Amino acid sequence: MLADPTRFRMLWLLCGAEYDVTTLAAEVGIARPAVSQHLAKLRLTGLVTVRREGRRALHEARGGHVRRLLFEAVNAADHHLTGKPDHD
């Protein structure tokens, strides 16, 4: 799920706040139908939750595990690109 750069970026944004499809599409710079399809995949795998607020559906990353997963992935890439040694 995270190999796709668009889904990774969407999930990164969803770790910091709730978004509806329209706002997330504007942030990521892709069409709303594409955002909806990506969100459906992220929900299916349990990485994203959705809650209703009236007619709006607000999406956000599912808890601390997902946030830590993304943080570690970004840190691992940073270490690789900058030549920093790995650590535990």
From TrEMBL:
InterPro entries: ArsR-like_HTH, HTH_ArsR_DNA-bd_dom, Metal_resp_trans_reg, WH-like_DNA-bd_sf, WH_DNA-bd_sf. Residues 1-81 form the HTH arsR-type domain. It holds the Pfam family HTH_5. Keywords: DNA-binding, Transcription, Transcription regulation. PANTHER family: ARSENICAL RESISTANCE OPERON REPRESSOR ARSR-RELATED (PTHR43132), HTH-TYPE TRANSCRIPTIONAL REGULATOR KMTR (PTHR43132:SF8). This is Transcriptional regulator. It comes from Lentzea flava.
